Amino acid sequence: MSEQLVTPENVTTKDGKINLLDLNRQQMREFLKI
Fold it and tell me: Which Gene Ontology molecular-function terms are recorded (predicted)?
């Protein structure tokens, strides 16, 4: 269960901000591919 959706409440983690940016980029790429 290491993969968790980055939520506003979860952003306070160590690399929350970086993870959030990377997550958004990945989601955008996947969304555009579909």
Answer: methyltransferase activity
Number of domains in the chain: 1
Give the helix/strand (H/E) hosting 23.
helix 16-33
What tens digit of pLDDT does each residue of 1-34 get? 566 666 665 555 565 566 667 778 888 888 888 6
Query: The dihedral of CA 25, 26, 27, 31: what is its sign?
Result: positive
- Give 10's contacts (C-beta < 8 A, 6+ positions apart): 4, 16
Structure tokens belonging to residue 5:
């959706």
